[in-house]
Structure formats: structure tokens, C-alpha cells
Amino acid sequence: MSVRKGNWLLLIVSVLVALLMAEALLRVSGLAMMHARFQCFDAVIGKVYCNSTEGTFSRTTYSNHLVINPDGMADREYPVTKPEGTLRVALLGDSFAASEYLPTEETFEGLLERQLSSQLGKPVEILNFGISAIETWNQLQIFHLRAVKYRPDITFLVFFWGNDIRDNIGQLKAGSPNPLLDEYDASLARRLKEMRKNFNKALWNNSMLYQVVHERYGHLERSFKRRFKPDYLERIDRVIAGEANGEALIDPGPGRSPMIDTEFTDDDPFFWDSEGWEITRQLILKLRAEAQAAGSRLVLLHFPSEGLVRSSISLPHGNFDDFLEQNDIPYVSLFQDYSALDDAELRKHFIPGDGHWTPYGHRYVARRTQDMLTGALSGQQPSP
């Protein structure tokens, strides 16, 4: 072995020993491991849950022992082959559907599963494919790549007005694999990105040293981004969260409702003729077609955030209802429900300062969607 190679080997061994010693010191220091990270990266879908992962998930005052099953669902494990006589529902959505912070029996998924099984007199399984921070674009990919193999009788899409539309157009503009074009073969660059990101996630879940270093760096990066975040994004976020009631509105021109700044796609949810809504309509129609081809029927729940309920900004939810009716998609809208509630009652549905549903909110959603799902499932014979 040459002197140069020996020096490099000695350097590598020294670095590894130093890292192991630092890890050991942190482990005996009394410092607790931070919560597990549950999200991994998929080269096509993007954000997914890490298969066969478990740990504590906390959201404000709620805490839950979350278990991700081997197929990446925040749910129990299901056989791919559907049991005879069983009806299946594939649940698609974001964090409202996933509800990682509550035990399944307290979520609308668990409540509906029990109620529908009792009402229909046969087993009903609701398979939760919801993943936090994803949108219709990813949900169509998940149906195609993951849900369809379970042969669901009903495909239940949970649609959130707070960010689904602007995130759909964001995916298009970012050049993500496009489910409308059946782009399900990821590039080599995205495959390598998947390997890198998931290796980092494994380090986080298993190394205290990595957690400490990563957290310090992340804090610095977030501080930098907050300092240079455009003001219009801050204003839109305040409107959605309910911290502002239509502040700093401008007039976008004849025939359009006032909004914050029409140069940016962040206001796409507020205009039915926007590019964001156009891509969203295409995604929903593609999902309906894929569900029908798989012997499933698409049904949908759509709802606003607490802040949007009280905002003076008009949303085109009536246009969306008309679109769903014209395309024979059964749906439940919570716009009128929430608008009719007084402030005290509305607050019972949402976690303060967070915006997700409380257990009370989940029970309400289960009651409001039970009849729609009963009707959709009643006309279904369990597919083989």
C-alpha cells in the first residue's frame, strides 16, 4: 500500500471513529431522540410514507402512535386479494385524510368503516392512501400505482381548497412526472434523488448525531427563507389561515372576484377559469376514467379551511359543484355547512392554530359523507 493510500485510509477511519464517538456521547448525554420522520421520497409520486415505519406523531395537543404499513399506508395491513363478499373503498387525500395525529377509530375513515359495515350488512374496508402535503396530481399517481391493485369498489377523493389547486399547478410548472400523460417511468435523476433522500431519512430515524446537525442547519435555512419570503405569499397564507379577512385586496378586472395578486399562481383557487383549476379538472376527470376502468366509482368530498369560510373572498365552489354533477361524480360539499355555523360551533371542527379536523370535526365528516358512500356502495357488487 502506497503512503498516499495509507494516509487516506487513516483519515477515513479517523473520521468514522470520531463520528461514532460523537454519536455515543449524544446517546449517553440524556438528550432524547427526536420524533421519527415518516415521509420518504418516491421517484414518481414524490412525498410518500416510509414503508413499515412507526413512532410517535404529534400535532399541537394531539399525539398518536402512528404505524405505516408495508405498502406505505397510514393504516393497518390489507391483503392485496380482497376477501370474498367484502366491499372496498380507496381513500385518497392529504393530511385531512391521513390524520396521522389520531387513532384510526377516531377518524372519519374508522368511523365510516364501522358504520357502513353495520348498515350494509357486509364487511366494508376503507384503505387509507392519504398522505400529508400531497394534492390531486399525486393522488392520481397513487391510485394508478398503488390503490388499483386492491380492486376498490369506490374511490373516495378528499379535496381541500386550502392548497390542492395551487399545488396541482405547482407540480405542472415544476415538471414533475405527469399522470395526465401517463408518465410513470421516472428519470435516472429522480431515481438517484429517491436513493439520496431516503438514505437521509434512514439516517434521521437512526442517528442522533445526524438529527442534531440537520436540525441546526434546517433552523438556519428556515430563518433565511422567512426573511426573504415575498410579501404576497405571507398575505395569502394569512387569508387561508383565517388571520386576515381579505386584507390588501386588489381589483383583478371585470368579471373576476377581487384577490391579492393575479400575477401569481397562488390565487388560482379563487378563479374558475385559472390555469390551476383547468389542470385540477383534468386530473379529476382522469381519476374518474381510471377508476371506472378498474371497476370502481369516484365520489368526492370538498371543503374549505376555517379561514376561507369566514373570508370575504368569493370561491367558485358552486362552479365546482356544477362540474361534478355534469360529470356524474357524487359529492358532498361542506361550504354551506360550515358557513351556517356560528363562530363557536365552527371552532369545534378545527384544531386551533393548526386547521386540521378535531375528533369532533371527524365525526361530523363521517355523518355528512355516510349517505353518499352508502348510496355508492349499495349499487356495487363486491368485485372479485
Biggest sheet details: 5 strands, parallel
Helix/strand order, N-terminal first: HEEEEEHHEHEHHHHHEHHEHHH
Q: What CATH architecture of one domain do you see?
A: 3-Layer(aba) Sandwich
Class inferred from helices and paired strands: alpha/beta
* Count of separate DSSP helical elements: 14
> Which percent range describes the beta-strand content?
5-15%
Please report the first level of CATH classification, the CATH class of one domain: Alpha Beta
Output the CATH topology of one domain.
Rossmann fold
Inertia-based shape: globular
Q: Helicity range of the residues?
A: 40-55%
Over the alpha carbons, how many angstroms does the gyration radius reach? 23 Å
Average pLDDT metric: 85
Taking strands numbered 1, 2, ... along the chain, how are they ordered across the largest sheet? 6-5-7-8-9
For the record, give the distance between the C-alpha atoms at the N and C termini, rounded to a whole number: 65 Å
Stretches with pLDDT under 50, minimum 5 residues: 245-251, 259-264
Question: How many beta-strand segments?
Answer: 9
CATH superfamily of one domain: SGNH hydrolase
Which terms summarize this structure?
single chain, 384 residues, alpha/beta, Rossmann fold, 5-stranded parallel β-sheet, two-stranded antiparallel sheet, 9 strands, 13% strand, globular
What does this structure look like?
This protein is α/β, with parallel strands linked by helices. It has a domain at 39-186 and 276-378: 3-Layer(aba) Sandwich (Rossmann fold), CATH 3.40.50.1110. Helix content is 47%, strand content 13%. It has helices at 3-28, 95-98, 108-120, 136-147, 164-174, 188-206, 208-228, 231-241, 275-293, 306-310, 317-326, 335-339, 343-347, 359-378; strands spanning 39-42, 46-49, 53-59, 62-68, 87-92, 124-128, 154-160, 297-303, 331-333. Strands 6-5-7-8-9 form a five-stranded parallel β-sheet, sandwiched between helices. The model is unreliable at 245-251 and 259-264 (pLDDT under 50).
